[in-house]
Description:
By secondary structure, the chain is α/β, with parallel strands linked by helices. It contains 11 helices and 13 strands. Helices cover 42% and strands 16% of the residues.
Amino acid sequence: MFASRLQRRKLLIASGATLAIVGLLTACSSGTPEPGSSDNTNTAESTAGGSVDGGGGTGAGGKVRIGFSGPAADHGWLGAINTAAFDAAKKLSDVDLIVAEGTNDASLQISQVETFINDKVDAIVLLPTDGAALTDVAVKAMHAGIPVINVDREFSSTFAARSTVLGDNYGMGVSAGTYICTELKGKSDAVVAEIAGIDSLPLTKDRSQGFEDALKDCGLKVNNRVAADFTVQGGEAATSQLLAAAPKIDAIWNHDDDQGIGVNAAIEAANRNEFFMVGGAGSKNAMEDIKSGKGVLKATVIYPSTQAADGIALARLIVKGLPFGELVTQGVPNRIVLDAPVVTKDNVDTYIGAAFAS
């Protein structure tokens, strides 16, 4: 019963994600050089675009001027977010991408968005360091007639964004739990552990809830749980604590492959291998471990690092008034949630080429 219901849900999500990918790829062409880095964190930096493709863009020369601001790339996944965004801009010949230096300071990011507003950009793609803290300035941009595309961390008001692109945090938990249920094959007394990220973040709560719900459907529960902080050091410390408290474990879900480097270090130091582990996010090193089949890591759940890149493609469509791929409806959806597939040894070659480095 649990497998069929969850499979139906995953198929629906996957179908939506496929439509999103088709729409975004249809919008792509080629041309814009990669942005450089800024020496002044308070100043947005413009990057020259490629040749105009004759589209109906706004701004000088028909260009669509898109401001992009995100957190500092102090984490493998965040670095991949930026790289994918820059690569997306290269492929859109009528886009002029204006990049603000990454920061984890909400006040500084607010000032960057205000600079975009004053510069009258055509659209803003924003991965906020704190969704609630950036809500007011995003609303200000919307009131100024500048569409905002919210990425990954949601604002606290629906008026703050024209469109939102999200990974499926709840779906990650469902995917991880479903995989563990399948692998344990009805072992009702199995001991399941969870190594979460930062517990205060809504995304962590969503991941844990999805995991709990999926396990419940097959009669399992989380027996041991710790939270880390999405860092290698935090992953190692939290896992050492977990292993000391649980002398026997059958399966572990670790929310994040970056902190998973520390998780693996703690597991090796404790000389524990009686369990299998599922990772989260989809890093290249995690997929290489899965492919080798030598360690406890048997799978990882994708959390797409393409969200900002998708946001840039959407911003262009919105400004130009273009349709969203092959959808019958006019315009761009207000909310897009990407899929959370499970990568195993059987399908790792499909995903490893696009994986990010931790």
